[in-house]
Amino acid sequence: MLDDAIVTEHLTRKFGELTAVDNVDLRVASGQFFGFLGPNGAGKSTTIKMLTGLLNPTSGKMQLLGIDFAQNPVEVKRQIGVVPEGMGLFERLSGAEYLTFVGRMYGLDKATTRQRSEELLEFMQLADRPKTMIADYSHGMQKKLALAAAVIHGPRILFLDEPFEGVDALAAGALKALLARMTERGVTIFLTSHVLEIVERLCSHVAIINKGKLVAQGSLEELRAGVPGAEGKTTTLEEIFLSIVGQGGTERPNVEELSWLM
């Protein structure tokens, strides 16, 4: 059985009277491509921020790679990579300068940083504009650079918050190719996305959060088996998601009730 890369126990985060994440017990095995799903405002980004050290939990425990996050936060952060939804790049640097900065911050020596930066820029098809500032990159180029920065130190866990949002097909293909190489090497990838077709194509295991509570967790096959009436047919991840979140969750608006569209 694979060792666990991520384990949370009763993970909770409150903002005043609002409980954004409520007693989440999450378990992700090493080497899994793991999808983390939920409606808007369900607690996905808050959970990722806690798992990456950007937010402290109100209560509960987190272990990443067998290390207690609260006791050894720096050791955990050395071994993870993060592509946040907002990216937060230093836009007045060139791509090469930014990767050099990130590599050195992770403690890589100059030679290793230079070699990996050149390889990543070439792989991401960013090497032909060496002096272009990040501010002048397209959105897709910035996404590719953010992913390059997240993997330059060779992380054992990679967190991706909406990595394909606003990315064209060519850029998305490059990102997926890099992620496939990483999972082949045993890296654990924790992905959140609203594009369920991408999650279904890439991920072997999925967890679903709704209103701060974890409502489902398991392999796609296990989740399909729990959908009523799914016997004998292939159930899509979208159908699984709607069957779980739609029951007792937020109802879809009925367009037939919008008089001004009649």
Descriptive key words:
single chain; alpha/beta; Rossmann fold; 6-stranded mixed beta sheet; 9 helices; globular
Describe this structure as you would to a colleague.
- The protein has 262 residues and is an alpha/beta fold.
- The protein has a domain of 144 residues: Rossmann fold (3-Layer(aba) Sandwich).
- 34% of the residues lie in helices and 24% in strands.
- Strand 8, helix 6 and strand 9 form a beta-alpha-beta unit.
Report helical residue fraction.
Answer: 25-40%
Q: Which architecture name of the domain at 1-79 and 159-166 and 193-249 does CATH use?
A: 3-Layer(aba) Sandwich
Total strands: 11
Overall geometry comes to globular
Which spans of ≥5 residues are poorly predicted at pLDDT below 50? none
Fold-level CATH name of the domain at 1-79 and 159-166 and 193-249: Rossmann fold
Radius of gyration equals 20 Å
State the distance separating the first and last CA atoms. Answer: 56 Å
Total of helices: 9
- How is the main sheet built? 6 strands, mixed
CATH class of the domain at 1-79 and 159-166 and 193-249: Alpha Beta
- The averaged pLDDT comes out at 88
Q: Per DSSP, what share of the residues sits in E-state strands of 2 or more residues?
A: 15-25%
Write the layout of secondary structure elements.
Blueprint: E1 4-15, E2 18-24, E3 27-29, E4 33-37, H1 44-51, E5 59-64, E6 67-68, H2 73-78, E7 80-83, H3 95-105, H4 110-123, H5 139-151, E8 157-161, H6 169-184, E9 188-192, H7 196-202, E10 205-210, E11 213-219, H8 220-225, H9 237-245
Parallel strand pairs: 4-9, 4-10, 7-8, 8-9
Antiparallel strand pairs: 1-2, 1-3, 1-5, 5-6, 10-11
Helix pairs in contact: 3-4, 5-6
